[in-house]
Amino acid sequence: MITKRVVAVAAAALALAACASNPPRPVKSQFEDIPVAKGMGYQNGESMAIETPTVQAAREVYRGRLELDSLASATRATLEANGWRHLNTTKTSQHGINQVYEKQGTSLQVLLWEGWMGWFTYAEYTTARILQSPSSPAASGSSR
Question: Most-buried pick from 61, 71, 81, 82 (CB within 10 A)?
Fold first, then answer.
């Protein structure tokens, strides 16, 4: 009986030590100039990124326990501080908050909504960036 108790205490101590030694991971983003609110965790299974030599595109989804309107205000303030120009915001009870931004010819759509029963708040960032202009076959070919 004492052995089981010692094993249980040792297992609990190891679990707590592991939690204490693993600091929270920084918020992941494909793009350095797209900040994400603190308290929002990257959802790997819901997110995707595509990169070619000419285009970089991403749909990044985050989840946290933040109040929706506060998250919307913080998102707008931090994006504008990073040079994004706010174009439009719509809010509906069915789809949450949709914010649209523009920066140097790149558009960014941010969707914010509350999950089932309002337990979690979600943020989805969708954007695509042209890395370099594709070369035109007509421009690179020689005329005969």
Answer: 71
